[in-house]
Amino acid sequence: MRRRLTLLVAATMCLALLAFVVPLALLLRTVAQDRAVATAAADAQSLVSLVGTADPDTLRISVEHMAAGARGPLTVFLADRSVLGSRAPRTSAVRLAALAGVSRTVERPDGREIVVAVLGRPDGTAVIRAFVPAAELTRGVTRAWLVLAGLGVALLLLGLLVADRLSRALVSPITELSAVSHRLARADLTARARPQGPPELRQVAGALNHLADRIQELLREEREQVADLSHRLRAPLTSLRLEAESLAGTDATRIAARVDAMERAVTGLIDEARHRREADAYAVCEAASALRERVAFWAVLAEDTGRAVTLDVTVEGPLPVGVPADELAAAVDALLGNVFAHTPDGTAFSVSLAPRTGGGALLTVADDGPGLSADLAERGASRGGSTGLGLDIARRVAQSSGGRMDLSAGRTGGARVTLELGPPVSPPASPPASS
């Protein structure tokens, strides 16, 4: 935009300068020609009275004196064929003036010829001839044109400088607005635009800041609602804990452990809803250890339902991904929960983790069940009476890291869900402190 504004000003100024300089240059040339012709005509007219009345000797001395000071040749042709002043041929204009007694100005290839007929001499009509060379007609024109060209270039450069300053003052607020909008898109809700520039841009900056405030307010309300809803789950969890404590044996221990795990999940959900940090956009966790922990948790239930579990983690060392550990655990729980909810008991399933090209990881959960259709990946879609949010949770976790979710059929015809988890994103460097 800045370049386009500068080019627009440059084109406008060039047209204005052409419209001003070209006519002025032509006018200067015309003025120079008229000035040279007028000077030569004045020299010729100054000899008219002298040629008509002076004796030959006085006339010769006066003509030679004036011819020596004239800018061009100045000649007097007498009727007796004698020539006074500058040596010059008797041209057709001179002969015509002598015969007809008329004065005129004649355009010639090498200049302009001015002839003045002087009547009343005893020996006949005399003719005064003044000649203006072509060089004299354009004397000073080239220098004037150079001055005009230099002035035009200086004005053009000055206009471009002013246009660059103005466009910078206009584009800089727009660039800042764009940067703030990108920060808001990356969940940096602390980003605010400074109202600057023209009134319209200040209004846009104010509207963008109002939008960011409104987004923060809506998110805060949503988190409080989620936290309140999660808090309500503690009452039935407490009841389940009491029921578990009333039992005896290994069943009581197992149920109490699951109630504890559910209570921890609810507590984590409340903390996440109320205290989610904007730094989650730059969160990182080690995928291999988080996956092993969740598979170990679900392996107990798999053993109770007669399911064979295969865990394949083909990675050496840590495998960082760009999602928080609790969100990755929620995605794994959602995928494994779908296996238990939508496949009959005894159905085997496998979980694998491998490095992703370009960073991140590929998490795959496959089962030997009846499979899932692609429309079940939509939020709220379910065939088993559940909420239908499991696959949507996994999809959003993958997308938050810059990856995606792929739903396909496995080798045995069952469902195969692959999560592409992106690599961690480094936070922007803090600006150096001013001294």
UniProtKB/TrEMBL annotation:
Residues annotated as domain HAMP: 168-220
Any matching Pfam family: HATPase_c
Enzyme Commission numbers on file: 2.7.13.3
Domain of life where this protein originates: Bacteria
Keywords linked to the UniProt accession: Coiled coil, Kinase, Membrane, Phosphoprotein, Transferase, Transmembrane, Transmembrane helix, Two-component regulatory system
Any single Gene Ontology cellular-component annotation: plasma membrane
Region of interest: Disordered: 400-435
Annotated InterPro entries: HAMP_dom, HATPase_C_sf, HATPase_dom, His_kinase_dom, HisK_dim/P_dom, HisK_dim/P_sf, Sig_transdc_His_kin-like_C, TCS_sensor_his_kinase
Coiled coil keyword on record: yes
Domain Histidine kinase: 228-425
TM stretches of this protein: 144-163
Extent of Pro residues compositional bias: 424-435
Catalyzed reactions per annotation: ATP + protein L-histidine = ADP + protein N-phospho-L-histidine
Compartments, as annotated in UniProt: Cell membrane
CDD domains registered for this protein in UniProt: HAMP (cd06225), HisKA (cd00082)
Main location, first listed in the record: membrane
Name this polypeptide is given: histidine kinase
Species whose genome carries this gene: Streptomyces aurantiacus
Lineage: Bacteria, Bacillati, Actinomycetota, Actinomycetes, Kitasatosporales
